[in-house]
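Q: Can I see a sequence and its folded structure?
A: Here is a first one.
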Amino acid sequence: MIAATAFFFLISLAQAQVVNPLASDPRAAQAGGVIFRAQCATCHGADAKGIDSIEAPDLTLIWSRQTTTDASIFKTIKEGIAGSIMPPHQNPDPEIWMTVSYLKSIAISGTNETVVGNVGRGRSLFVENCSSCHRVDGVGGSLGPDLSSITGRRSLASLVNSLREPSSAIGRRFKPVSLTTATNERVQGTIKSEDAFSVQLMDSEQVLRAFNKIELIQFTREIDSLMPVFSEAALTETDVNDILSYLQSRRGRRPSI
C-alpha cells in the first residue's frame, strides 16, 4: 500500500513538471504579466517582443515552433540557458507557471489554413528567388529572416504582403542602413546591434561587420527594404502559393534553439 502511494505520488510530481496546473485559470496570465514586467522586461521588453540592443528573442513567437511546450518554457525560465544572458530564476514554481500562462496568452500564431500549392515547384521557386538571402532548415542566406517556421508565426496575407510590398513591414533585426567609411567605402546592410558609439550590421555580401560611429562620414537609416519587390509579373499568384506551400511543409522541422 505504501509502495503504491509513493508510486502515484511520483507520477503526480512528474506530471506537475509537464502540465501547467494553472492553464485553465485566467487570473494566472494576469499575474504572470505582472511578474514578467517586473523581472523580464529589461531584456525582452514590456511587450515581450525584445529590445534592439539586447540579444534576447521575441517571446511572442516562441509557440510558433511545434517543439515548444509549456514544460519546455517552464524549464528554460527555471534553469536559464547556459552560455547566454538568460539566467536561472528562483521563483516558486507557481509563479513560473503564471509567467508561462502569460507568455502563452500573448503568443502570436500563424495560419492553420493549408496552402494549396505544389510543394516541389515551390521549393524550386524558393531556391531561385529567395534562398540567396533567406534560409530554410539551415540552408540558404542570412541577410533576411530564417523562414523555416514562418507560416507558424505570420498570416498568409502578411506573407503575401511581404513579397509584394517588402518595405511596408520590416523586422526589427533587419532594418536597412547605409554608411560611408573614412576611406569612402559605401556599405549597405541590415542593422544587427547598435549603441551610442558603434554599430554592427550584416552587409549586402552577408558579412557581419562592426563600425565605430565617430569614424563614419555618413550613416543613414533607410526606408526601403533591401528585399526586392516581387510583383505579379515576377511571381504570379500560383508561384506565391507554391512557395508558401513549400514553406508550410517545412514548419516545425527546424530544431529548437
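Q: Show me another, different protein.
A: A second, unrelated one:
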Amino acid sequence: MCQQWRLFLVAFLMRYCALQRLRQRQEQLNAARLELENLLSDRKVELADMETLKSHVEDLRNLLEDSSLAERKSFIKSFIREVRVTGTEVLLSYNIPLSAGAASQDTLVVPSTVQYGGQ
C-alpha cells in the first residue's frame, strides 16, 4: 500500500509541476502577444490633409519643371524599382519615399499611339 501511495504522489506532483510550467508559459505568451499588439497599433500612419498634399505636389512639380534632365532621371530612379513592358501593358514597381519600405505595383496599358513601348 505504501508503494502505491508513493507512486500516486509522484505522478500527482509530476502532473502538478507540468501544469504549473504550462500556466507560466501561457502567461509569457500572453504578455508577448500584448506587447506585439501594442507595437503594431503604434505603427499607424497619420495621413496629411488634402491641402497639405496639394501644396507638396505643387512644390515638387515646380522643382521638377526647373530641374535638368539628369536631375529628373535621378529623382525618378530614387523610387522606381522596376519597369517591365509586356506587349501592351507596363508593370511599374515603386517605393513611395514617405512610407519607409512600402512597395506598390501598378499595371498600365500602353496607348495604341506608342509604337515601340519606349524600347
